[in-house]
Prior knowledge:
Layout lengths: L2 E2 L2 E2 L1 E5 L4 H12 L3 E6 L2 H10 L2 H4 L2 E5 L5 H15 L4 E4 L14 H29 L2 E6 L2 H5 L6 H21 L4 E8 L2 E2 L8 H9 L7 E2 H11 L11 E4 L7
Parallel strand pairs: 3-4, 3-6, 4-5, 6-7, 7-8, 8-11, 9-10
Antiparallel strand pairs: 1-2
Helix pairs in contact: 1-9, 4-5, 5-7
The site of nicotinamide-adenine-dinucleotide has 29 residues, from helix 1.
Amino acid sequence: MDHLEGYERVAVVTGAAQGLGLAIAKSLLEKGKKVVFIDVNQELLQELEQSFQSNYKERAMFLQMDVSNICQIRESINTIITQWKRIDILVNNAGIREETSIEDIEEHEWDRIIDVNLKSTFFFSQSVIDVMKKQKWGRIINMSSFGGQVGPLTSGAHYCASKAGQLALTKVFARSLSKDGITVNAVAPAAIRTPEMDRIEPGKLAKMVEGIPIGRVGEDLEVAELVLYLASESAGYITGSTFDINGGLLMR
Ligand SMILES: NC(=O)c1ccc[n+]([C@@H]2O[C@H](COP(=O)([O-])OP(=O)(O)OC[C@H]3O[C@@H](n4cnc5c(N)ncnc54)[C@H](O)[C@@H]3O)[C@@H](O)[C@H]2O)c1
């Protein structure tokens, strides 16, 4: 049942102001969920909020916050529970990426990437466990990366380490919550068209595409469809898994 008696499931998507997070959040809205759009970018969130039609407005909440800040994570969870009483789906999608070489990575850049990509995944997941356990239902989906499985296409060591860390957290949480009706899975994309991809130098991107067996970059909606499935009622027997969506770059 996608609809509970009298109210809809509540989904929280981090990094939802653009790119994959936005595609995922909009797809969840279209499927009838209530959706919390979380992002650090206030301007983009405001633009989105203004662009929403009235029927979506009632089911969309916009929270500006930095996902690497534990106090802000806990405040946002309190706000959501106070207003909507439950949290059914958490998509840990917010992420940042740098291409800095091993030799040039400095401590502040290392810390920032690990905090935004990995620490946030742990503390957001930790913060929703209680409510999901009470509901005896939950879906946590972590947006990892090909870089966390195989090493870099274009990204730095810190990014790859943070994405590999998310894969480990996926298994740790999946095992720990498996008797509570809560599933935890990871998605590992490579080369999906988003604003972040526009930062890759065109020559480098063209070379990357040459190496993709399917011969093109992926689209944000293709990733959103996979996340929708993992967040659905039908996916209750899948947990601790990583789903590759990379045009065949990694076959295993
Ligand atoms: N696009 C790809 O090809 C690709 C490949 C592998 C993995 N991923 C992963 O998918 C996720 C989304 O990537 P994308 O390409 O859509 O990126 P993007 O940069 O287009 O969007 C990321 C969003 O996260 C937000 N964000 C960044 N730092 C934040 C913070 N501290 N707190 C709250 N929000 C923050 C940004 O404002 C932005 O809206 C990331 O975790 C990324 O590592 C993407």
